[in-house]
Design brief:
- With 269 residues, the chain is α/β, with parallel strands linked by helices.
- The chain folds into 3 domains: 107 residues, DNA polymerase, domain 1 (Orthogonal Bundle), CATH 1.10.150; 73 residues, Helix Hairpins; 66 residues, Chitinase A, domain 3 (Roll).
- It has 7 helices and 7 strands; from the N terminus they run ααααβααββββαββ.
- A 5-stranded mixed sheet has the order 5-4-3-7-6. It has a two-stranded parallel ribbon with strand order 1-2.
Length: 269
Amino acid sequence: MNSSSQNPNLGEAAGSFLADLPAEEGEKSQQAVYGFVRWYGSKRSLSLLTAHEVENYAGRLSSAGASYLTNVEQVKAFLAYARKRGWVKANLAAHLKTRKSKTRLSSPAGRRQSPANPLTRQGYTKLEAEIAELKNRRLEVIEDMRRAAADKDFRENAPLDAAREERGYLEGRMIELEASLKSATIIDETKKTGSKVSVGDSVILIDPASGEELRYTVVSPREVDPVKGKISSHSPIGKAVIGCVQGEMVEITAPLGKLCYQIKQIECK
């Protein structure tokens, strides 16, 4: 935590709260707590959070899910903890009230669908590897916290504060990546016909005037790697070529104006 231990930001306070919980309880609470933190910004000073903002937060959560009440109670526990530590003057937990949900149709059409997250198999595997690395690092940080906690003077325990903050970051990142994997749609590269450009394909573009050739691989935003020629499907070039066929002319809007290229070749990988 920063040098001013009595004025932490939301991210630091959340890390401290979760670290003080029993391991199993902290695991269950982290998604709700970090969801609250991300909404207002992890770097925002906790002392600047207002009762009105907290009161409105419950209304932003979906009350249709079975976890709604649990999420609210976990955030209230975090706010009560902040009050007990003296980080906030008001009892903000009292302003986080649940609301009654209206009856909704249970048909698939009436449910909110998570946005699709197309990923290549390579991209999916890369995210899995990062999560595994984060989990290993979290175990190391927990051990660092145990060693630092051996020093009973918690008021000036900089190593413990630093370990808590890093654990908070690691667990927040893990939640983000796990959500991406949960909503991911793996591109079935074996069933592509190659007739139209889609995410995961490589394209060779040619400038009809100069004969210059450009080669790109269209990937999801999470897999972008300019050095390897991997461009986002949301980039100007990605948007221009998606859905086009070999031989088609495409117009790309660039900072210097509009550029025209022909799709010389589509390679499905």
